[in-house]
Amino acid sequence: MKKIAIYIRKSVKGDENSISLEAQIEVIKSYFKEKCEFIIYKDDGFSGGNINRPAFKELMNDAAINKFNAVACYKLDRIARNTLDFLTTFNTLNNYGIDLICVEDKYDPSTPAGRMMMTLLASLAEMERENIKQRVSDSMLNLARSGRWTGGNTPFGYKVISLDGGKYLKLDDKDNIKYIFEEFANGKSMFKLAKEFNFGKKKISRILHNITYLQSSKNANTYIKQILGYEVVGSPNGYGYLPYGNYTIVNGKTVKNINGLKIAAISKHEAVIDLDTFIKVQEKLKTFEGKRAPRISNKSFLAQMVKCKCGANMLIVMGYKRKDGTRKFYFACNNKCGNSFVDINTVENTALSLLKDVNFFDKITNIKKVASKDNSKIKKSIAKELEEKKKILDGLMDKLALVDDNLANAIIDKMNSINLDIIDLQNKIDLLEKEELSFRYNKEDLKLKEKNRKHLISDFGKMNMEERQIAIRNVIDSIVWDGKNIIIS
């Protein structure tokens, strides 16, 4: 049985010019010819000027748990008199999959006219969201274009100075900024850096994530826009970026801005970190994010990197004690699948032998040659088709207003079909852009890995076990023992 939530509201008790609550209920119930179960939400004596009404709040809470299939009201203004409040309510119910039916206004999504109204309301709601987003964007852009420092915690290595009536950043500790980025990129842990500077580990993490230190360039603009999700303001000139909108207020608390607008303005302060180093640092940071560093055995620099052919990790186990009191160590399958043990020294020597080869990346598996790929012609063709589909959709929208209900159904079906085509074409463009980006940054990644390989081989003898474990992870991803062969990828 279909469940219908009936929402009724009357502003002032005893108002003779307004239909009574009881009459509203009767009109709504009589509208539904089929047998339905009704749940009534009543706000008596509450204005429609805002949505801060007890029964309305209860209605929306119940909608969130899908307590009913549709919300029915006497007229649209019973829900809200404020356009934004109504559009927000409509959009929320729509997202929950709940229909909104207004009996007196003849708004019912099960009819062609109702579906047309739903499309129009959804468009208005989207337009209102875009308008709000644009106003926020314009405000942030005006602030960002000036390149001024707007307050907050001063980035490490800079001081704030007053100039021409505004505040700007001035470089104050170039050497230590470079030291933190370069040492982390070359294998030093955040923990060790924090200990050296007497900082918390979180502060080191914030420094390494901060685009303030990155030198602006055309390639840097592309990286922070497509990889880090910033809108870039200004022309690259070698100076640093100032980030705006990294944090936002939610329920009175400052939290990281995940999906909202973030702006990177090219500023007037000196920056000291080149793009290659910055990307290398960001790639390393990704491997740590959301993970608590596991305890790694000190018996091998390949600990926790070797996998069995069955997919399980291979653990380090001790062999029998020899006559001289020493023991051999082996990698053994954690799943005990029957794969043979393999001597740690054998795996380490094989890995080092390969790493010393200048053609290392040509010999190991899972490294593909990076080819340049120009998708501009394909994208141009798809974009042209996309514009044509949009024009057809606009034409159908104009026709819809002039035809009767019989033709309206056919036009709405056609509009839905074209909408699906538009979404598909836009997805194709997005995919091509991601492909281009992937080609570009895979090439950069190989360059960084080759640089890391040279560093590992040249400094291997000077490194302690922890430094070796970190350095090897900057070059290779995993090692598989299949019972006969050691496969490095």
Automatic annotation (TrEMBL):
SUPFAM superfamilies linked to this entry: Resolvase-like
Occurrences of domain Recombinase (ranges): 155-291
Key words of the record: Coiled coil
Classification via InterPro entries: DNA_bind_recomb_sf, DNA_bind_recombinase_dom, Resolv_N, Resolvase-like_N_sf, SSR_resolvase
UniProt GO molecular function: DNA binding; DNA strand exchange activity
CDD domains registered for this protein in UniProt: SR_ResInv
Domain Resolvase/invertase-type recombinase catalytic: start-end pairs: 3-147
Transmembrane helix in keyword set: no
Keyword Coiled coil: yes
Coiled coil regions in record: 379-435
PANTHER family: DNA RECOMBINASE-RELATED (PTHR30461:SF23), DNA-INVERTASE FROM LAMBDOID PROPHAGE (PTHR30461)
Entry protein name: Recombinase family protein
